[in-house]
C-alpha cells in the first residue's frame, strides 16, 4: 500500500510538471495581413522633398516566419536652393523579403528582424531654369524629361508590433538601406530613388504601419500521457 501511495504521489507530481510544460505552438498557416505605411502619406501631405507611400501583404508561418511583399509609389519634386537644379519623379517600387519574430510567446506582441530586397525602374525629369551655357556663357532654361533609371538595394532592420484591438495592429521599423546598383543616363544622376530615398550609397529609413491581421496565432499542445501505464505495471508487480 505504501509503495502504491508513493507511486501515486509521484505520478501526480509528474503530471503537474507536464501540465506546466505545456507549450503554445502556432499552426503552419497562422494568418495573413495587409498594411499601410502611415509615414509616407503624412510626408506627402506635408509636401516633403520626397515620400514613399506603400502598402504591404504578408503570410504568417508558425508565428515566426513572415514572407512579405511591399508595393508603393515614390514621389519627389524639388529645386536645389543653391544650384537651382530641379528634379521630379513619381514612380512605383517593390520590395520582397522576410520578417523573423524573436518573441517566443504568442501574446500578440512581436519583435522582428527584417530583411528586404528592393528595386525600382523609373523615369525622372531634371533641369535648371537659369542654366548657363559653359561654352558661350549665355543663360537659357535647361529641361531634360523622361530619363530612365533603375535602382536596386537591400534593407536590414528591426521592428516591433503590438496588438491594438482584435485584428488591428500597429508596427514600427528602423531600416538600414544599402544601394546595390544604380543605372542612369550620362546627363545626370537622379536625386531620389523611389522606395529607397535620397541617392546615396547608404541611408536609413523608418516605417509606422497600420496592420490588419487575420488568423489563428496559437494552439495548446499537450504531451501524450504515459503515467497510467506505469501505474498498471506497478499494480501487477504487487500481486
Concise synopsis of the structure shown:
It is built from three helices and twelve strands; from the N terminus they run αββαββββββββββα. The chain has 239 residues and is of the alpha+beta class.
Distance between the termini: 11 Å
At CATH level 2, the architecture is: Beta Barrel
The strand order across the widest sheet is 2-3-4-5-6-7-8-11
What's the helical proportion of residues? Answer: 10-25%
Shape: elongated
Which CATH top level class fits?
Mainly Beta
Q: Please summarize the sheet with the most strands.
A: 8 strands, antiparallel, barrel
Number of domains: 1
Secondary-structure element string:
HEEHEEEEEEEEEEH
CATH topology: Porin
Question: How much of the residues is beta strand, in percent?
Answer: over 45%
- Which parts are unreliable, with pLDDT below 50 for 5 consecutive residues or more? 2-7, 9-22, 220-224, 226-231
Multimerization state: single chain
Rg computed from alpha carbons, rounded to a whole number of angstroms? 29 Å
Continuous helix count: 3
Query: Can you count the beta strands?
Result: 12
Averaged pLDDT, please? 81
Q: Structural class of the helix and strand makeup?
A: alpha+beta
Task: Give a written overview of the molecule.
16% of the residues lie in helices and 56% in strands. By secondary structure, it is α+β, with helices and mostly antiparallel strands. It has one domain: Beta Barrel (Porin). The strands form 3 sheets. The protein has an 8-stranded antiparallel beta barrel. A two-stranded antiparallel sheet has the order 1-12. A hairpin with a 2-residue loop joins strand 7 and strand 8. The longest helix has 19 residues. The N and C termini lie close together (11 Å).
